[in-house]
Design goal:
The structure holds 2 protein chains of 2 kinds.
Chain A lengths: L1 H25 L11 H11 L1 H33 L1 H16 L2 H12 L3 H25 L3 H9 L4 H39 L4 H10 L3 H30 L1 H4 L1
Chain B lengths: L1 E10 L2 E4 L2 E5 L4 E5 L6 H9 L6 E5 L4 E4 L11 H6 L7 H10 L15 H13 L5 E5 L7 H18 L2 E5 L3 H7 L2 E8 L2 E4 L1
Parallel strand pairs in B: 4-8, 4-9, 6-7, 7-8
Antiparallel strand pairs in B: 1-2, 1-3, 1-5, 9-10
The chains are: A mainly alpha, B alpha/beta.
């Protein structure tokens, strides 16, 4: 048990060691700085407030896009999983959007809506909705028809059905969509910021890319990875544990 | 009064049920027997309003309860919530009383998975009787229980039916159950038009 808890830390330590070895072999801080060379840069950015401003801008975009993509994708997936006719109509759209490169949607949103916050969030949301819908559709198809019948016979309200019958069955699918959703969304948000925003981690990475400053690119990237790890540990994993509490009873 | 008047029920082009007509009076218990796969469960689902795709008409009271072949509980909700969620108008005390009458006292906060199959079936029965239904429909409620547990379930069902006096229809393969609980036995048999009453 103790060893199992240590495993992720040992694994990360291994990755860090690889980085150190690569940095020593490269022997050029401009191409690949050693991990400890990032610390003063991180402190400088954190001290000046720049890091927090840009992290905050990116987090807000991620939250908006995540909330919209999860809500729209869940509704769409639920309807498509429950209604064969709706699925027949919407499935081709889903396939088109699933295969549309993220970059195309981002560029089109900026061209059609303009270089605005709304365009950025719309582009990220549209990129993620099809993935969420596909996962939730599978969950909706696997819903227990006997529980449906039970809810119908006892005339449970639609709100009670959703909360107590449907969503607990969908919980593993929602958790899977949320986990992959967060990971994909923040990467797309960075691209969106890279291409058309004047704030956020993606914008800073763009700036330091132009200056060929690998160290600062890594400072901003790792800062955001830390934020996403906190989201994973403090929000997603507790949600998953709560959702499967009855299985472990 | 519950009235069943089915002209036909098809699954695609296959006739499942032919003309079936019967009535159940208040307080009467009716056993439905017949070979496996003949359409007994389909008939119960039509009677309960779960399957509306048939030719004919059903007259039934609004307040009905269904005991499914499997316990069909919400595994992610506690025992007491499995009573309260389908019957939100019940008080917590009424739900506890129903659990006590069903032999589930002290199990209120457990999850269904922590109960034996016999206890899960008791919970399913408690849920059905919690709102004093006017029509009770049971689909092989004692199937896959060992003899002793089935006997105890039968005792409980008999007692609850005699206390509440709903119109009851239940499917069984066991004539012992039918003889013990039913006032009337209806037998389904195969015909070219689908299953009909013998």
């Amino acid at each position: 048990m103790h060893a199992a808890r240590l495993t992720p830390f040992l694994s990360l330590a291994g990755l860090l060691s690889l980085w150190v070895v690569a940095a020593i072999l490269t022997d050029d801080a401009q191409i690949l700085p050693k991990p400890w060379q990032l610390v003063p840069l991180f402190l400088q950015e954190a001290g000046s407030g720049e890091l927090w401003t840009h992290l905050f801008a990116t987090i807000i975009r991620v939250l908006w896009a995540f909330a919209l993509a999860m809500t729209l994708g869940t509704v769409l997936g639920l309807i498509m999983g429950r209604s064969a006719r709706t699925n027949a109509w919407l499935d081709p759209w889903l396939v088109v959007f699933l295969n549309l490169p993220a970059l195309v949607l981002i560029v089109l949103c900026y061209l059609w809506i303009g270089l605005t916050e709304a365009a950025a969030i719309t582009a990220v949301t549209l990129n993620k909705v099809p993935n969420v819908a596909v996962v939730i559709r599978e969950g909706a198809r696997a819903l227990d028809p006997d529980l449906d019948a039970m809810a119908q016979v006892y005339k449970m309200s639609w709100r009670a059905r959703l909360r107590h019958v449907v969503f607990p069955q969908l919980a593993p699918f929602i958790a899977a969509a949320a986990r992959s959703g967060v990971a994909v969304i923040w990467k797309i948000v960075l691209v969106v910021e890279f291409l058309g925003r004047s704030s956020g981690v993606g914008f800073q990475i763009h700036l330091y890319f132009q200056l060929f400053d690998v160290a600062m690119v890594l400072v901003y990237a790792f800062s955001f990875i830390c934020v996403m790890l906190l989201v994973e540990w403090l929000l997603l994993q507790p949600f998953e544990r709560r959702a499967r509490r009855w299985r472990d009873a | 009064m519950t009235r069943v008047d089915i002209a036909s029920k098809m699954f695609g082009s296959i006739p499942v049920l032919g003309p079936i007509r019967f009535e159940i009076n208040v307080g009467e218990t009716l056993a439905l027997v017949g070979p496996s796969g003949i359409g007994k469960s389909t008939l119960l689902r039509i009677l309960a309003g779960i399957d509306p795709e048939f030719d004919g008409s059903i007259e039934r009271p609004e307040n009905l309860a269904f005991v499914f072949q499997e316990p069909t509980l919400l595994p992610w909700r506690s025992v007491i919530q499995n009573i309260l969620l389908p019957h939100p108008q019940l008080t917590s005390q009424q739900a506890r009383d129903m659990l006590t009458r069903s032999g589930l006292e002290g199990k209120e906060d457990l999850f269904p998975k922590q109960l034996s199959l016999g206890q899960q079936r008791r919970l399913s029965l408690a849920r059905a009787f919690a709102q004093a239904p006017e029509l009770l429909i049971m689909d092989e409620p004692f199937v896959s229980l060992d003899r002793d547990t089935a006997d105890r379930m039968l005792d409980l069902t008999e007692k609850l039916i005699s206390d509440h006096r709903p119109a009851t229809v239940f499917v069984t393969h066991d004539m012992r159950e039918a003889d013990r609980l039913a006032d009337r036995i209806l037998r389904l048999e195969n015909t070219p038009e689908g299953a009909c009453l013998a």
